Amino acid sequence: MKRLWLAICVLVAFGAVSLFADIDPNKEVVPGVKRGDTIIIEDPTPGAAFSNPDSFNRWSCWAGGGGGWSYGIQQLGLDTLWFIDPDAGIPRPGVSAKDQVWHNSLAAAKPIYNKDYTQMTAKLRKGILWSDGVEFTSADVKYTVETLAQNPTMIFGSSFKVSIKSVETPDKYTVVFNLNSPNSRFHRNFTVRWQGCFIMPKHVWEKEVKKPGDAITYNFNPPVTLGAYVLKDYDKQGKWYLWERRADWNKTTIADFGMPVPKYAMYLTDLPNDKKVIMQLSHDLDMVHEVTPEGMVQLAKSKNNTNWFQGFPFGHPDPTLISILMNNARDPFDKADVRWALALATDVVKAAMGSYNGAVQISAILYPPTGTSRKYYFDPMQTFLKNFTIDAGKAGKIKPYDTTIAQKIADAARPQFGDQVPKDPNRIAGMIGQGWWKYDPKAAAALLEKNGFTQKGGKWYKPNGEQFKIILQNQGPDRPILQRLTTTIAELWTNFGIETTAIYSQDDGTNRNLGNFDGYVFWNIETWGGHPDMSYFIEALHSKFFTPVGEVHNGPNPIRYKNAEQDRIIDDILKTDFDSQKNINLGIEWLKLMVKDMPEIPLFAYNVFVSQDNTYWTGYPNYDKPYANPVTNWTNGRYIFTQLKQMLPPKK
Amino acid sequence: MSIRGVLGKSFFKYLAQRVGQCVLVVFIGITLTFLLPRLAPTNPIEMKIDQMMTGPMRVYPEAVASFRQAMYDLYGLKGGLGEQYIATWARFFRGDLGPSLTTYPRPVSHLIWRAMPWTIGLLLTTAILSWLAGNLLGGLAGYHSDKRWTKWVELTANCIRPIPYYIFAFVLLIVFCFLVPIFPSSDAYDRGVKEGLNLRFMVSVLYHTFLPALSLVITGVGGWLLGMRALVSNIVSEDYVQYAEFAGVRKGTILGKYVMRNALLPQLTGLGMGLGTIFSGALITEYVFGIPGIGLISYRAIVSFDYSLIMGISMFSIVGVSVSVLIVDLLYPFFAPRVRLQ
Amino acid sequence: MRKAFSGLWKTSGYFRFGIVSISFAVLMFVLSFFSPYKPMESFVVPANLPPSLAHLFGTTSRGQDLFWQMTVALRNSLLFGAVTAALSRVIAIWVGMYAGYRGGLIDKAMMAVNDSFIILPVLPILLLVQFLVREKMNWFYMASMLALLGWPYDARLIRAQVLSLKERIFSETAVFCGMPTGRIIIKEHLPYVMPIIFATTINNFLWSIGLEVTLSILGLTNINNASIGVVIFWANQHQALISGTWWWLAAPVGITVFVFAGLYLLAVALNEYIDPRTRLSMKAVAA
Questions:
Q1: Which residue ranges form the domains of chain B, and what is each CATH number?
Q2: Which of A186, A211, A577, B256 has the fewest CB atoms within 10 Å of its CB?
Q3: Shortest CA distance to C60 belongs to which of C41, C75, C35?
Q4: Which CATH entry fits the domain spanning C2-286: 2.40.50, 1.10.150, 1.10.3720, 1.10.3470?
Q5: Minimal Cα distance from C219: which residue of A?
Q6: Cβ distance A358 to A565 under 8 Å?
Q7: B29, B318 contact by CB (below 8 A)
Q8: C-alpha A131: how far from its chain's center?
Q9: What is the dihedral of CA C193, C196, C198, C204, to 10 degrees?
Q10: Can you give the C-alpha Rg of chain A in angstroms?
């Protein structure tokens, strides 16, 4: 009887939705713009609609939705020197697989450094036009850098002020940056991985911006674009932005990959979770940025749906590593044994089920298992991991690496996802991961005892007699999956005997940055994705950027970890060429050190349940054709438009 | 009901009292809303830094320090608590509510201005509608208290009254947006419709705000209904009503001219006070149905620790509510002879 | 007592419904101590099962048995409401009666403060405080906060009643006869004040639970402590609406409506009984 009820409710919901869903390429999205010509995309920035919808000043931190820039301006309107793809990149004739991830966008070639990395030269492309017909030249780059350096509250402003001595433009297509101190990775500032320093049109800005403060409040409305699209219209409340492809799109850098297919692109902001799902089910939303696992399951039932894995585990793994951060400056987390004990007391299968319902990519090392990282890091390290041994006191010497974990997760997920969960072990390894640390409470207990901890009545006590309690923080309802994960881990550790409470601080990271935490479920390791260079995150782990607890740290080291060996590796990396094999080898050295010390417990890639509807457009990237990152807010997403196919062209 | 009769010495004493109280309330309220957000361990600047410092930008501590300093200057948050407090009052008397910290430099007044029409429109109409409907039904129910249908009306009102508003609104949402999808579940108007005085826009707004309005009216009616009914049932037993009935005056006239007229007075006071609370915005309604009114903005302001915005909205609503209550209190003696004598 | 009960039962439909509702709430309360699972522990039963004999209310996406979870949730919510109501009664009675009896400047001052509190917008203030002290917030603090915000309206009612009682002839007689003020208050006046206190208690009880539910749904309370609002919060987190686990929302919403409406109707029935005028008319009907 209850099942019947359920069926009726679901049928009514679906039935009603499909009744309201009409597939009509001729219906107008806004007057004059037809659905069949428009791709409708979700902009996930929360609260976008209440902030500064009229501002297209991408360099001010208050533009758009109070700091949101993903309503099309960065994806379609702006450009910079180089792009690195978070996945594999679009195959191009004459370009090797390794180089596919790199695109010389506004630059004509890779960055050129002098011997001691105090000067970087960028050669620019010729014939790229702004949307008002003016040519892009080195004067624009110089103007951008100088304007930003004068305004430390603008993005990149304060770091340019500190790092750049001067910018010279010997000719229209060459820019020379003179740096204040050696920096072999200075080009990072102009290389897009989610964002980069975009270039401003000098001829437009200098008319409105007379004194330094003006640049902060200048609206840049309507924006003069360097990308393949211009702004056509937008909602004054900030709910949607409509972009139109430029007639001279072939004078922009995206033309290297062909014409961006959709004539119009509309970004919708501030969509609540339920509404997103319903809109996509009724074919009114083509690209969804992220839904919960439950929403994904519903969307996947629709026959026009595509997602990254075309089935379980659905989500696209972002090159960001979710881990349990531990405060290495606080007792007892300053002991490697205690940190390892916590790792061994974490049943990662349960953690995976409690957060992503099993749809995860696990990582045993401090590197997100995404993009091309398997090839560069995971595969070469398997032997080391399998042989890695810990001295677990009374429990003896153990080898904690467990290669059956992925299989266990697949089995746990099968009741819910049925046949979509692969059975082939190779596919499981590819989709879920190659292994993690064994769930070994006995060894964990032995490690604690080895360090003076005692167990009374099922609860653990520190060597000084205090009960071992942990407060595990996370960031609350804006990151619901991390919240579930934190609650699950808190339960697991409490069952092990360490009383753990999961709380969340809606403080956007202040506690983390100040070091006011025992444990924090978050991420500090983000990588390029496609390119194996670690400089994206590793440079600021050096002890010269270390700040003690109580002083704010705005970098990747909120865990306050210091290690001389790590410093040495980082110094070496920064002296090594960006593209070399030596660079990768140094990275592997660092990863091995992290395994020994376990300063934080790595868990999963940040999975984004991206979903697309193929009724009007098709050709999105996926696991078998990973030519781009399907999330909608990364600037890198612009490449997708060149690979799509229009399914329902409207009547002329 | 002569005005001269009211404006005696005692009235001015009363006036002074009420105005004084209004000022006191405003002062306390504004001080509280100044202090409370600043007691938080975090502040909007740290949040902005966290947002901005990703990837290659976060490497230089001097850069971060420079950014932080510049932000403090920009936001006017430098100087001690005392300085900021005085500056706040200075701005208040100039009528300037300050810049919003999350949407700098857009002033708070601009955000409030944009959101107010939604809140006022929704709450004003529903307050008046539920007051009218509630009093009418309550009056009829109280007068015809022996009939069967009054029992049903009372029962419904009594059942709806104790339910937390969120639950009620949520159930409406589930039923009419998901189970039987007639209404849209969020936003004040359809995307793709341009804001402005055109028919398409207005129809879209009505379509989107029908459900939230309905939820407010239904939950609001109950209180007025029961209150009116109680008042009426007291009045019904009064001598002059009984006399009118014996004298054969039409029931409708008795209800309208004799009974309701006298019962309306306390209800009017209630309405006055209720209208004052419009300024606080129906936070939950706007949250559940996604209406971009004052309530939703204050929620967002609190979530992002935007001191200025929180202060601005609070100032606005405290002043608004206090002044409305003051006006109601001052007008009361003109309508209620009995009160005047005290 | 028994006569009153049976009288009410016979005459008042509200009373009958209220008693049924209270019995249900008490039953759930008692059952909560026998729950075989720890209330918020996840993955102890298979997830997403619809209601059946094995799981009366079904199971959640986090692998929890909803029936047993609701017993604890209801218990926590009821306790919370009771504590808040009790605390705010104390404040309201004290303020109302003291202001009413003292009169004069003290009365005016207290009423000024009282009115300021009435005007305060409760929800935004709670939101703000919750954000500030979330980590240290436990339900006792929250109950205290709500008590601090919930007394003004009732204090005024009590004061009004006290004022009118003071004027009455029997009070003046008692004073004239030399009865000490304390005895007057307790023996003569309290019986008149009690009905108001009682009526406002139930209202306050429901109001505070309602606020707790609202705050929990917004995710602002300790979401690891089971309460009705917390259950709805997690259901929304897991998108129960979309994923078809309708029982996860139906149970807490249904129970809330049932228990709240029942309690309120019970209060209405009892109020009518206590008020001498209506009781007489009820007796007439019963006879």
A1: 3-94 (no CATH), 109-336 (1.10.3720.10)
A2: A211
A3: C41
A4: 1.10.3720
A5: A477
A6: no
A7: yes
A8: 30
A9: -130
A10: 25
pLDDT tens, position by position, A548-594: 888 878 778 889 999 999 999 999 998 888 888 999 999 999 999 99
End-to-end distance of chain C based on CA atoms, in angstroms?
18
In whole angstroms, give the CA distance from residue C286 to residue C282. 6
Read off the pTM. Answer: 0.84
Q: Which chains touch C (3 or more CB pairs under 8 A)?
A: A, B
pLDDT above 60 (res A13):
no
Distance, in Å, from the CA atom of C95 to the CA atom of C89, rounded to the nearest integer, reads 10
Residue A368 contacts residue A605 (beta carbons within 8 Å): yes
pLDDT at position A19 is: 46
CA-to-CA separations, C70 to B170, C84, C265, in angstroms, rounded: 19, 21, 22
CB-based contact, B171 to chain C, within 8 Å: yes
The chain-wide mean pLDDT, for chain B, equals 77
More confident residue, B1 or C2: C2
H helices within chain C, ranges in order?
2-11, 13-31, 66-102, 104-119, 122-133, 139-150, 152-167, 169-176, 181-183, 190-217, 228-237, 240-243, 247-274, 276-286
* Chain C residues near any Cβ of chain A (below 8 Å): 40-43, 46-48, 50-52, 58, 61-62, 131, 134-135, 219, 222-224, 237-244, 246-247
- The CATH homologous superfamily of the domain defined by A3-304+611-646: Periplasmic binding protein-like II (3.40.190.10)
SS3 of chain A: helix, strand, coil, percent, to 5: 35, 20, 40
Sequence-separated (6 or more) residues with CB below 8 Å from residue C213: B164, B166, B167, C77, C227, C228, C229, C232, C256
Give yes or no for a contact between A281 and A299, defined as CB atoms under 8 angstroms apart: yes
Q: How far is A635 from chain B (nearest CA, A)?
A: 14
Beta bridge partners of A174: A123, A171
For A304, counting Cβ atoms within 10 Å of its Cβ (0-12 exposed, 13-18 middle, 19+ buried), the class is middle
Provide residues of C within 8 Å CB-CB of chain B. 14, 108, 112, 115-116, 119-121, 123-124, 127-129, 131-132, 206, 209-211, 213-214, 217-218, 232, 241, 249, 253, 256-257, 260-261, 263-265, 268
- CATH number belonging to the domain at A316-453+519-608, selected among 3.40.1350, 3.10.105, 2.20.25, 2.60.40: 3.10.105
Could you state, in order of their start, the residue ranges of all structural domains in chain A?
3-304+611-646, 316-453+519-608
Q: Do B194 and A539 touch (CB under 8 A)?
A: no
From residue B3, give the alpha-carbon distance in Å to each of B11, B15, B272, B304, B335.
11, 15, 20, 50, 10
Residue A135 binned pLDDT confidence (cut-offs 50, 70, 90)? very high
Distance CA B21, CA A28 (A): 57
C123 neighbors B284 (Cβ within 8 angstroms): yes
Give contacts of A294 with chain C, Cβ < 8 Å: 61, 238-240, 242-243
Which tokens hold the place of B46?
């740290």
pLDDT band at A18 (very low <50, low <70, confident <90, very high): very low
**pLDDT, tens only, A292-329:** 888 888 898 888 999 998 888 888 998 899 999 999 99
Measured between beta carbons, the chain C residues lying within 8 angstroms of B298 are: 124, 127
Q: Where are the domains of chain C?
A: 2-286
ipTM of this predicted structure: 0.77
The tokens describing A248, both together, are 């001279």
Find tokens 């679009």 and name the residue: A90
- With beta carbons less than 8 A apart as the criterion, state whether C214 and B164 touch: yes
Confidence label for B319 from pLDDT (cuts 50, 70 and 90): confident
